[in-house]
């Protein structure tokens, strides 16, 4: 498997992880004020997931240019 193919597979997994983090944040928002104390940790997980996903997508774009 090439580097690009393995990066695309990793991006697919990260995308699923980011989507789940987004749904967790959404679910939490619908339940507020219940579990309000977990807002920060859930938001940080979503932020980290999307940050990593964006970083890998940018790297893939750089690889595609070469």
UniProtKB/TrEMBL annotation:
Leader peptide range in chain numbering: none
Coiled-coil region list: 4-31
Recorded superkingdom: Bacteria
Residue intervals passing through the bilayer: none
Keyword terms, alphabetized: Coiled coil, Nitrogen fixation
UniProt entry tagged with the keyword Hydrolase: no
Gene3D superfamilies for the chain: Helix hairpin bin
Stated family: Belongs to the UPF0437 family.
The protein, known as: Rop-like protein
Taxon lineage: Bacteria, Pseudomonadati, Pseudomonadota, Alphaproteobacteria, Hyphomicrobiales
